[in-house]
Amino acid sequence: MFFWALFRLSLQVLATVLCRLRAAVAPRVASSLRPAAALWLWAFRLHPERGRPNPKYPLLLPIFAFKGFFVENRICSLFNIEKPIVQAGMIWCSGWELASAVSNAGGLGIIGSGSMYPEVLRQHLEKCQAATSKPFAVNLPLLYPNIEQHIDSILEFKVPIVFTSAGNPAAYTQKLKAQGITVVHVVSSAKFALKAQAAGVDAVVAEGFEAGGHNGREETTTLVLLPLVKQVCSVPLIAAGGISTGRAMAAAFALGAEAVQVGSRFVASEESSAHLAFKSAVLSAGEGDTLLTLKELTPVRLLKNPFFQELVQAYQQGSSPEKLVEILGRGRAKKGMFEGDLDQGELEIGQVSALIRSIKPAADIVNEIWTEFQQTLVCMGNLVHNA
Amino acid sequence: MFFWALFRLSLQVLATVLCRLRAAVAPRVASSLRPAAALWLWAFRLHPERGRPNPKYPLLLPIFAFKGFFVENRICSLFNIEKPIVQAGMIWCSGWELASAVSNAGGLGIIGSGSMYPEVLRQHLEKCQAATSKPFAVNLPLLYPNIEQHIDSILEFKVPIVFTSAGNPAAYTQKLKAQGITVVHVVSSAKFALKAQAAGVDAVVAEGFEAGGHNGREETTTLVLLPLVKQVCSVPLIAAGGISTGRAMAAAFALGAEAVQVGSRFVASEESSAHLAFKSAVLSAGEGDTLLTLKELTPVRLLKNPFFQELVQAYQQGSSPEKLVEILGRGRAKKGMFEGDLDQGELEIGQVSALIRSIKPAADIVNEIWTEFQQTLVCMGNLVHNA
């Protein structure tokens, strides 16, 4: 009895020494694993009553616990950021103001270039660089018509990270990487994740069915998608879709993600360039107020509004895809999200809008998610079986 | 420096004493929180270098950590089980063999009475009671035509727990509770969760869009649904939909669940009464192989097969709901899941089938989920920020 108690105590002391040692070697590493806690939990494998290893603790527990001593958060290292929270690049919503605010708060801000003319992107890059000295990224939809001009601007302004989406990652990944740019691709299935990895991307974003805007045909939710992608990919995994809180971030980490990409929550930030009417519509959205539609064209999750009802009617009348394209017309997204036309505009937002109830500065959002994430981790650690 | 190190060490010793004390008071409580780990983490709030509280740790951390000393897993206490893992009551798949195997392994097994004649249910109850001395439950679809006969059997065999679904919880909750039965209701939205709570249920199961079989109209995924339900309900929350592993279980706990209900994984168990052909179809299902359909009638998630394609064609031809009812006909679920007709049968299974690759004894499934859950908790605890 006494021997085991002493042994456990000495393990704890050793843990503290190791922790100090490690802090001396890599004093500024963010989000790393805590070796001392690992050892502490290992010590607990020893049964408090019977003075021998507790059979209720699986044999592999110490290995899992020890692994923590060597593993870092690969996304923080890759992007050179403090907190593995990425703000999604969103058309009409994420310009330089939002991106720089998120980067300044220790996350990764992304300028959504999909809704910008080449000249507009250049202005945003200039202003973003003036507003932050921290790394930020550009989201590049690979089907963008003037993509070469966008890439020229990215190279000229030495943007360190590019998130590509909506297209074949094989097309530009190597070109960008040859210029020293970190490339991340957004996917909605394990199949596309494998393709992206084969193309040489540095990380993938796996985005589930609950996400706003354009979405995958498989309708796989984040909870199921993350382990599917994790199974086949060795590059770091960023979770997206349905994440607006620290608890959801912890859930994503439990499923193997090393960072989260948050979209909808940042639409309702002070720095987002979304129209105030759209932001207000996000705040008042409840459960079931968004739905995936236009599955015959490109599936997209929209807030239900008169335009959405028009689509529903067209479906009920058995309209052809051509007819749907005609109804959709052009410039609907700008009309809805940027100009605030809640009737006739296309309002792209995620299911998680049902949880968003306030407009806040982006830095506050980053810090709230981060704090809740850590609180949740502590609670999770405390849950370890104590029979 | 030395003072703080000593203070931290003494906190750790105190933690150990508290842990022993608690083990003496409630030696057999399962899945409880670990007060020692809480204190240990609290001690870490003290900055190792500067000898004062680490500002990187939020002020509320110790409160979150300490809460662990008082909180138990309410689902384990409510059901009197060891592991908060519930096997979903599934038509044609979960008879007495599966339910008793899960209960014997420390989880909660459920007999799915929705596909049973009253006489068949009585046989299953008898055999289940002979096969296990542990608690098990019956799933009762509230729209079942002979529900009174089922309830009589449940009372006669003194079944301690009933899971109700597919109907108004106000109808039978009080009647069952008056007989000392624990009542749990399955919901797909926060709105219905509130109704169930008002009806007096002891817990709710929140089932997301990714789940197999019948499903909600809002299409809310588990990741978004759990926090929405948690916001409005004070009764314990059981997560369902998309959960087949210990990592997914940990994700559900991060979102506030106190237990998980696992369906699809147990379809592919040795004790499930699903036809072997259906079990094999589940094993070979990949991502995107299930889809929610029949939204005009009752939304249901099915594995894509020739019958499913028939429905797709009917939709493309703009068929009326009446026509759909005609195509559906009667007995499709039995034909597919119980008799193994993979062409013409209705094959109800969740998205998570894409992750299921083996048929195993139910006890092994319970233990694997439980072990991985604990390993994930340890890893999560280790992730606590160490900048």
Q: How is this structure best described in words?
A:
- Two copies of one chain form a homodimer.
- With 387 residues, chain A is α/β, with parallel strands linked by helices.
- The first copy, chain A, folds into three domains: 2-72, no CATH class; 75-273 and 360-371, TIM Barrel (Alpha-Beta Barrel), CATH 3.20.20.70; 276-355, no CATH class.
- Helix content of chain A is 45%, strand content 12%.
- Chain A has 17 helices and eleven strands.
- The first copy, chain A, has an eight-stranded parallel beta sheet.
- In chain A, helix 1 (2-25) packs antiparallel against helix 2 (35-43).
- The longest helix of chain A has 24 residues, at 2-25.
- Mean pLDDT of chain A is 87; it is low at 23-36, 45-52 and 60-70.
- The interface between A and B is large, with 90 and 90 residues.
The CATH homologous superfamily of the largest domain in chain A is named Aldolase class I
The overall number of domains of chain A is 3
Q: Give the overall pLDDT of chain A as a whole number.
A: 87
Series of secondary-structure elements of chain A, N-terminal to C-terminal: HHHHEHEHEHEHEHEEHEHEHHEEHHHH
Low-confidence stretches of chain A: 23-36, 45-52, 60-70
| Derived structural class of chain A | alpha/beta
Largest interface: A-B, 90 and 90 residues
Blueprint (SSEs and pairs):
The structure is a homodimer of 387-residue chains.
Chain A: H1 2-25, H2 35-43, H3 61-67, H4 74-79, E1 85-87, H5 96-104, E2 109-112, H6 118-131, E3 136-141, H7 147-156, E4 161-165, H8 173-178, E5 182-187, H9 190-199, E6 203-207, E7 213-214, H10 222-232, E8 237-240, H11 246-254, E9 259-262, H12 264-267, H13 276-283, E10 290-293, E11 300-303, H14 306-316, H15 321-328, H16 332-338, H17 362-382
Parallel strand pairs in A: 1-9, 2-3, 3-4, 4-5, 5-6, 6-8, 8-9
Antiparallel strand pairs in A: 7-11, 10-11
Helix pairs in contact in A: 1-2, 2-3, 5-6, 6-7, 9-10, 11-17
